C-alpha cells in the first residue's frame, strides 16, 4: 500500500504542476476563457483522482461483495461530477468547454506519460 501512496503523491504533484502551468500560460497569453476552462477541468480531474484514491484505499479493507458495491457507487459519483463540470462549462460563457475537456483529460495524459517514463527508466537500468 506504501507504493500505491507514493504513486498517488507523485501523480498528484504532476497534476497540480500541470494545472498551474497550463492555466497560467493561458492567462498570460490573453486567453482567460481557456485559462478558466483548464483550471475547471484540472480541478475536476483532481477531485476525481482524490475520490478514486480514497475509494481504492477503502476497498482494500472491505470484503469482495462490499468492495464491488462500493466501486459501483463511486463510479456513479465520479461520472456525476464529470457531467456537472461539463454542463457548467458549456453554459457559462467565460469558460471554454474544450479547454475544460482538455484539462480534465490531462490526468489520463499524466498517467500515460508517467508510465512511459517508468518504462524507459526500467529498460535503461535493466539493460
What does the oligomeric state look like here?
single chain
Helical percentage: over 70%
Task: Provide the β-strand percentage band.
Answer: under 5%
Give the biggest beta sheet: none
Question: What is the straight-line distance between the termini?
Answer: 28 Å
Instruction: Work out the helix count.
Output: 4
Number of strands: 0
How would you spell out the order of helices and strands? HHHH
Tell me, rounded to a whole number, the average pLDDT: 88
Number of structural domains:
1
Shape: flat
Low-confidence stretches: none
Radius of gyration: 17 Å
Structural class: mainly alpha
Walk me through this protein's architecture:
- It contains four helices and no strands.
- It has one domain.
- The radius of gyration is 17 Å and the shape is flat.
- The mean pLDDT is 88.
- It is mainly α and 127 residues long.
- The protein has helices at 2-28, 32-59, 64-91, 97-125.
- Helix 1 crosses helix 4, helix 2 (32-59) crosses helix 4 and helix 3 crosses helix 4 (97-125).
- The longest helix is centred in the C-terminal third of the chain and has 29 residues, at 97-125.
Amino acid at each position: 500500500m506504501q507504493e500505491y501512496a507514493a504513486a498517488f503523491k507523485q501523480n498528484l504533484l504532476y497534476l497540480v504542476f500541470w494545472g498551474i502551468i497550463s492555466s497560467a500560460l493561458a492567462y498570460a497569453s490573453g486567453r482567460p476563457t481557456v485559462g478558466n476552462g483548464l483550471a475547471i477541468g484540472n480541478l475536476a480531474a483532481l477531485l476525481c483522482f482524490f475520490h478514486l484514491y480514497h475509494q481504492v484505499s477503502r476497498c482494500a479493507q472491505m470484503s469482495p461483495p462490499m468492495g464491488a458495491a462500493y466501486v459501483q457507487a463511486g463510479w456513479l459519483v465520479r461520472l456525476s461530477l464529470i457531467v456537472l463540470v461539463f454542463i457548467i462549462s458549456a453554459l457559462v460563457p467565460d469558460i471554454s468547454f474544450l479547454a475544460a475537456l482538455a484539462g480534465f483529460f490531462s490526468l489520463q495524459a499524466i498517467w500515460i506519460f508517467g508510465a512511459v517514463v517508468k518504462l524507459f527508466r526500467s529498460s535503461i537500468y535493466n539493460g
